[in-house]
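[Solved] Which block belongs to which protein?

Original post:
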Amino acid sequence: MALFNDHSIDDHQFLSISYEGAAPATQVDLWVHDPAIGALALDWDLSPDSHHLSRWYTESSRELFNHGKSTFISDDALLLRSSLHKKNNDSERFLLLGDRIINGDAKWGNTTPQFGEISFIDGYWEWLEDVLARNKDMLTSAKIYDAVFASLFTYVRNTNLIRSFCELWCPSTNSLHVPIGEVSISLWDLRQTGGLSIDGIFYDEVVPSARELTGAHKKDVPLLPPSCKYLFLAYRKIYCASEASNVTVHDWVKFWFKEDPRYKQPPARVQKKRLGEPRTSNNPTGFIGEKKLRSKDTEKVFDDLGVEKDVKEETNLAALLSCVFKVASMMAQGKRFSLAVPVLASIYHGLREITSSPNPSKCGAAFPIHYVYGWLGRYYDSYFLSAPTKFECGARMVRLAGEKNAKHFSFQEACDLLKSITPSTLSLLALGKPQQGIVTDHGKHSDSWNDYVISLRSSYLTLRRSNEHIVEPYSPHRFARQFRFCQDIPGKLREELSTGTLEAIYQLWESCTRLNTRADFMIPSHSSEGLTTKEYVEWWKKSSSNFCGDKLACEKPKSPLAAAKGKNIITFRTTKSKLATEVTPPSSRSKGKEVTKAVTKESKKAAVVNPKTPLSIPASKPKPIVSKASEPIGESKKRTNIILSEGSSSDKGERHWKRSKKKAADSDSRLKENVTVSDLAKLDYNLDGILDDLPDTSNHVEFQNQFASDEREGSVDGPDPFDLALLPKQNFVSGAIHLPSTSKPSTSKPPMLGRAAPSTVTAFDTGSMISCGRLLAAKMYDSNIKSILGKTPFEKLTSLRPKLQVIYAEFSKLELDYSPLQTQVEKYIQNTTNYVSMRSNFASEMTLEVKERRLADVDTKRGQLMEELDQLDLEAKKLRESLEGIDAQRTHKQHCVSTLQEEQAIIEATEVMEPTDMEVASNLEQLLKSELEEIQNLAWLD
C-alpha cells in the first residue's frame, strides 16, 4: 500500500512517498511549497492595480516616416499606449551583447553554444502519437492540442543565426534591435506560432502536500485528480531503481511506454547550403491514426502502480504532459492553463542570462528556445517551409520542423538577415479588421480576440519554478508595428522588477491576464502599415547601439570612386604581371570617364567579395601644385587633397609606378588630386623599422585551423581579417618602392638615371615632386598602420593608441590632414565587425574542392566516433548482461545460504531434543521398576 505523508525538516515542509513495510531507504522526500491554485491555495486580496488603462490607444496628428519610401508625411498616427512606462526622450545608447564582445567584456569562445541543441529520446515520438490518437478531445478542451502536436517534430537551429540573434538582443528592453527599430517575441506570436494559450489558470509549478494529494472535498471529490498520485508513485519507483539517484526524461519515457520503437535516431546533422526543402526526413509524418490496443507490458505498468481502470487514459496523458505533476494531471482533465505567459517569461529570462554572460557559449540557461526558432522562421526567411496543408495544426511552427529544414548562414549572412527586416513584414501575424474599429474588453469575445487583447497590453510576465520567482517586463508598445500601430518613442520603465513574493507574483499574473476590464482597444485595418513618428526616427538614431546600426561592416560599402566623379583621378589597376598606374589629365575627360567606369565596376565587384571601409584623408584647404620654374620653392609647400581607399592588387610581379606625361600647369591653376590606391592591406611595403617599438604579434597564429573549424558554425572569435589577407597562400611578392617616373620602368629592375626623355614639362617641377613624395609617404604610413592593426589581436588594439599618435605627428610634419585617418582607425578599434565581414567573404572564396575535402574529413572523423560509440554501447550492454548474471548468481547463492540456514536450525533443534528423550526413557524405566516392585509386594502379601 502506498503511503503519502507530510513532515518538516528545518522548517521546510516535505512530501514523503513510501510503501507499507518497505525499507526506510526507499522513502523519497520532495520539497513542498505553498500552492497558488487549488482548494488549499492561499487567500489573497487581489486589489485593483495601476497597470490597467481605460483606453490603450491614442490618436494624434504627427509627422510620420515611411521606411519603404523614405519620406515624411503628415497624417493621423494611431499609437499603442503603455501603463508601465513614463515619457522620456533621453538618448542614452543601448548596450548589446555585440557591443560587449567588441569591448572585450564578453566572448563566445571556440565551442558551440550549449543551449538550444536538440536531444533524441527513444520512444517519445511513438508514445506521443499514441496519446494524440487517444486524447484529442481532452487536449482540445485544454487548448493544448496544437502545442502538443508541435512537439512531435524536431526543431533545429543554425548556430550562426542564433549567435547573431543573441548579439542583437537587448536585455534591458526584451527586444531585438535592428536598423529600423525594435522587434520582439510577443504573447500573440507564441499563440500563433506555438499554439500556446494566453488566457487560463495560473501555471503553478510546485509539489503538492500529502493533504492536497490525497484529500477530498466534502462531497468526496478529490482535491487533485487521482492521476497525480500515480505520477508520484512512478517517480519514486524510477528514482529508487536509478543508480544515479535521479530521474531523466529518458527514464520517464522508458518506464511508461513499452511498445516497440519505430523511429530511429536521426543521423548527425551537418549544416550546409541547401537550395530547397530536403526530400527526406527522419521525423514523424504528422499523420495520427486510430488508437491501438496496448501491449501487455504497457498494461502491466498501470497494474503495478495500482491505477484504476477509469483513470488509465488520464494517467497516461498526464504522464506525457508531466513537466509538473500537479499541472499535468489537471490539464489531463481538460483544464486550460495560461502557458504563453510563463513560456515567454522563461524565454526573456533565458536570453537575459545569455546576453549578460561573459561567455555566452557556456551559459547554462534553460528555456524553450525552440519557440525562438519558430519566431525566426515566421518573421525571417531562415527555414525551408513545408506546405501549409501538410499538417492539420494551428501551430505554425510545424511548417519549419525537420532536422534538415534550417537554412545555412555564415555569421555575416545571419547578421545581414536579421537586420534586413522591413516594416511591411512586421504585421504578418497581427489580427485586423476590414476597417479600423474599437474593441471593448468585456470578456465575452472569442478566445482569439481575448488573447489578442491581452497581447496588446503592457504588463509583467511571471514564472514560478518551485521557490524561484521570475518577473520580466512585457512592452508591446516598443514593437507596436507588429500589431499595425504607429511606432513612437517608448519612454522609460517606471519600475524595474525581477522577482517578488508569491502573492506579488500571482497579483502580476492576474493583472496580465485579466479580462472584462471594460477598456477600449483600437484595432487597425488590414491595410494599415506600421509607420514611425519623426521623433522616433531621431531618438532611435541617437539611442540605438552602433552594433545594430546601418553603417556596419555587414553593409556593402559604396564605391570609393562615387564621390570623385568629375575630378582628376589617379587610379591603380591590377594586371597579371605588374601593378601599373595611369594619370588622367583634366583635358582627357572622355578617357577619364572610361577609366573611372572600369575601375568603378571592379570596385563594386570587389565590394561584394571583400568589402572594406575606405580610409580617406581629405584636406580641409586644397592647395595648388605649382609647376613653373620661376615659382619659389617655399610657395610649393602646400597641402594636397588625398583620398586613400582600397581596391585590389596583383598576385605576382614587382610593384611599379607609371604616370603619363602631364602638361605644365599655370601658376594660378588649382588641381585637386584624388588618389585611389590598391588594397593596402595586401601590399607588403618594406617598412621594417618604422614601428619597431610596437608589440610583436607574429605569434598571433592558429587562425588557419580556427577558420577551418568555424567554416560552418561560425564564431566571433578568430583571426584578424588582415591576417587572413596576408595568408601565405596569396603569394604576394614584395619589392622596393620606386618613385613615379615619366618614362616606362623596366619590369626586371629599377629604372636607371640617364638622359632625360622628351617631356612637355618646361621646368623642374619641385611642387609636383614634393606632392608625390607626400602622397607616397601617406600611402606608406597608411599601409603600415593597417598592417600593424591587422596583426594585432582585438584585445590589444587600444594599446596602440600612444604609438599611433607618433605616426600622426609625422603626418603633421608633412602638412597632411590625418584626422579622417584617425577617425577611421578609431572606428576600427571600436567596431571590429569588419573582421566578421572579411572572414565571411574569405569563407565564400574557398574552392569547392577544399570544402568537400574538409567535409569529407569531418564525416570520416564522425564515422570513427560513431563506431567507437557503438563499440562502447556494445561493451556497456555486455557489462549490463554480466551484471545481471552476477545478480542472478548472487540471488541463487543467497537462496542456497537461506536453505542451509534453515537446515542447520532443524539439526540444532534435533540435537537439543535428544537429552530430553533420554530423561523420559530413564523416568519410564524407573516407573516400570516401581510397578514391578509393587507387583512383587502384592504377590508377597498374597
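(Second protein starts here: sequence line, then its C-alpha cells.)
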Amino acid sequence: MGSQPPASRAALEPLATLDPAALAGVPTSSPLTVRAAALSADLLYLGTGGGKLLLFSLLDPSTPEFLRLLPIGATLPVSAILPLPSVARLLVLADGLLLLADPLLSRPVRRLGSLRNVAAVAARRGDSADPASASCSIAVSVGKKLLRVDLTLQDGDELDVQTREVAIVEGVKTLAWVDDSVFVATATGYSLFSSTTGQGVDIFTLPESSGHPRVKPLSGGDEVMLLVDNVGVVVDTFGQPVGSSLVFNTTPDCIAEVYPYVIVTGNSKVDVYRRRNGAYLQTIPVARTGQGVLIVASDDDGIGTELVVIATAYKVFCYHKVSAVEQIKASLRRKNYKEAISLLEEFESDGEISEDMISFVHAQLGFLLLFDLRFEDAVNHFLLSETMQPSEIFPFIMPDPNRWSDLVPRKRYWGLHPPPKPLEEVIDDGLITIQQALFLKKAGVDTVVDEDFLSNPPSRADLLELAIRNIIRYLCASRMKDLPSPEMEGVDTFLMYLYRALDLVDGMEKLASSQNSCVVDELESLLDDSGHLRTLAFLYGSKGMCSKALSIWRILARNYSAGLWKDLSENGSSGTSVDKRSGEEIAAIEAANILKTSSDEDLVLEHLGWVADIDQELAIAVLTSEMRESQLSPEKVVAAIDAEKVVIHQRYLQWLIEDQSCDDPHYHTSYALSLAKSVIEAVRMESKYRGKDNREIDSDAQKIYLLREKLQLFLQASDLYDPEDILDVIAESELWLEKAILYRKMGQENIVLQILALKLEDSEAAEQYCAEIGRDDAYIQLLGLYLDPQNGKEPMFTAAVRLLHNHGESLDPMQVLERLSADMPLQLASDTILRMLRARVHHHRQGQIVHNLSRATNLDARLTRLEERSRHVQLTDESICDSCRARLGTKLFVMYPDDSVVCYRCYRNQQGDSSSGRGRSSRKDVIFKQSWLVSR
C-alpha cells in the first residue's frame, strides 16, 4: 500500500484555517509555535513551545472563535494536552511537569503533585464518557516508575489526589490506558500492565531499526493500535491481535481517529485510511511551514465526533468528516457506479447509514442506471430498495396524464437524473448521448458513457425489448408486496401492457387467469384489437364477468372447429393434461371451469350444449359440479339436455340419485328407463353387426355387460321407480334377469321362479329365492316347475333331483310324491326319495324319544321334590343354627336341600337370598340326588 496514488475519494473536507497568533493578537515579534493540540466537545486547545495555552470555540466549526490565552511559563514548552471533563480539569504536560487548568483557562495553572521529569501520561479511556462520575484516573511514567493517579472532584471545586505505584518500567515513550490494561511503549517494545495488580506481560519486541513507538486507543473502548514502523497492529485489552493490521504509506508521526477513519501524519502529509480494512482513501495537502511535525487531533471519544484538527507550527486546519450520503452522492455525480456501490456496502457494514437511506440510494442508483440504458442493473437496484414504490415506474410505461398519474410520488431525489418519461424517449435520448460520445472519443475527449456501448452500439429495438423485459421483472416482483389497491391495479395493468408489447402470450394468459388487479376497461380494447381473445377471456373469467368470458370461449371453439384459426396443438401448446389437446378442446375446458362454479342456471344451460358437442365428459362435470354455491334445478337441467346425449342424461340422473340422495320417483324411473333402453339398443346393435372381428365383438360384449350390470344394480338397490314402466320397455327383450328383479319388486313370486328356473335355468338362484321367501311350499312350487315346465319344454329331472337332495328332508313327502311326474325315471329319484322318507321316519322317532325323556325327567323331579318334603329331621339340645351359631332348642327352624339348618330369624333375614346357611346357592349350585331314573 505504500506506493498507492492519492485517491479521488474525499473522506474529510476542510472547514476553516486558523492563524492562532493573529486570532490571539500576539505580535509578530514573538510568534507562536504549536506543539500540542486537543479537542473536547466544541473546544479546541493549543499548546505552544513558548509555554502558552490557547482556547478556541468551535461551536461554528467554519468560523472558529478565539476565547482565551493562558501563559503557563516561558520555559515550559507544552508537549501534551489531556482534557479531563469528569473532574472539570485540563491536564497539561509541559517540560516534564504535570499542570492542571480549568476547562475555560480562566484561572492560573497549578502543578499536580511534585512529579518531575514525566516522560508520558495517559488518561484512562472511558472516564471522560461519564462527566457525572466526578473522578478519573491517569497513568504517569516518571523515571523508572509507572504511577497511577486517581483524581476525585470534591466540594468547592477541590481535587483529591491519590497516587500509587503500579510497576517498574524504564524508557517509557508513550502510554495508553484502556479498561484495566495500561499499554506501555518503550524503545524496545510494547508491554501490558494491570492497573489494579501491577502484573505485566510483554506483548512483542520491536526491531532495533524500528521507528518511534506509538499507542493509539481506538473507538469502542476495547481495541488499541500499536505502531511498528508503518504498520498499525490492532490488539484487544489483553494484547492479543484482532482484526486486520493497517499498513500506512509512511511511518506516522501522529495518529488520530474519526470513526470509521484513521488519520495519520508523516513526511509532511496527512493520509486517511479506513479503519475496518486499512484501505487508503485520501491524502490531505498541507503546506507545512516552520519546524516540527504535523499534529493531528480529534475528540478522544472517536465515535460521534465529526471534527479533526491538523496543526503545523503556525497554522491550524479544521476538517470535518464527509457524511456517507455526500460521499456516495459525489461518486454518483461522476457516474462512478462501482465506487458508489462499494461505498454503500462499506457504510452499511460500519453502520454509518440508515436502512431508509440505503433504500434511497439503491433507488437513486436505479434511476441513474435506467437513464444510462443499463436496464438490468437498474432493476436490480430497484429490487434492493425497500422504500421505492412501484408507482415510480409508471411514468416510464405510460405518458402522463393517465389513470394512475396521481399515484406517482413526488420524491426529492438528488437531482442527478432527468424527470421520468416513457421508455422510448429514454432510449432515444440515450442513443443520442452514445452518438455524441463516439464523436468526442474520436476527438480524444473522455466521456462517462459505458465503454461497452461505445465499442458495440446497441440497436433501439434491442434496447427497448431489454428495457421492457426488466421492467416486467420488477413489476412481477412488486406483485408479491402488500400494495394499496390502486397501486396494485396499476402494477397488474401495466404488466399486461408490457407483456402485450413483446407479445409474451404465456405471460399474458398466466397473469389474466390468476388472481389479479388488472383494470378491464384499460385492457379490453387493447386485447380485442390485437386478437388476444384467449387472454381477454381469461381476464373476464378472473373478474367474474362469466358471460363475456364464455362468449369468447364459444367463439374460439367455433373458429378452431371451422379452421379459421390455427389449432393450438400445431404450435405445441398443451391443455390441462399431459396429452396435447386441440384449441377447440381447450376452449371447452376453460368454459367448463367457469361453468362449474356458476350458479346462474340460464348461463350454464345456454353454454352446456356446445361444450357437450365437444366433450360430453366436460358437460357431465359441469352439471355435477360441487363447487357452485347452489345447485341447478334438476327439472330445468333434464329438460335442457339433448335427447341424443343419452350418456349425459344418465350420468346426471345417476349423480342426482346417488350423490344428491334424490328420492323423487320420477327421476328414479327415468334413470331406470334410460338404462334399460341403452341396454336394449346395445344388444340390438351387437346382433346387427355380428360379422365384426373378435376384438370388436369382445368390446361390444364388455360394453353390454357393464350396462346390464349397472341396470341390475340399480333395479336391486332402488325401491322408488315404477317396475311396470320398466317391464313395458323390456317386455319383448331377453333381459330375463332384469325381469326377475322387477317381478320380485312387484311380489310376483311364481313368475320370478319361472324366470329363474325355466328361462335362466339357474337352479342355485331359484333355490336361494325360495329360501328368501321362507316357506316350504315355495320349494314344492319350484319342484312342480322343474317336473312340468309347460310350453313343450322337457322336464328338468336333474334340477328336481338336486332340489330334493338339498331340501327334501324339510318337505312334506306326500306333497313331493304328488308332484312327481310319471315320466320321471325311477333311478333318478329313488335314492333321493328313499333318503327323504328315512329322514322323515328318523325325525319322527327322534321326536318321540325326546318327548318320552322329557316326561321321565319331569316325573323324576316331582318324585324327588316329594321325598324332600316328606323327610324327617331330628334335632337335639346341642343342635345349633348354621348361620348365627345359636342353639335351636325349641325355636322354629328351616332346613335347606344341602342339609344345613338355620333358625327362623336367620331365614327371615335371608329371604330373597337363595344361599343356605353353609353359603351354597340353590340357584347356582344345583344339588343332584339319585332318583329312580338315575339309579336305573
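Accepted answer:
You had them paired correctly. Confirming on the second one: Confidence is low (pLDDT under 50) at residues 1-6, 570-579, 931-936.
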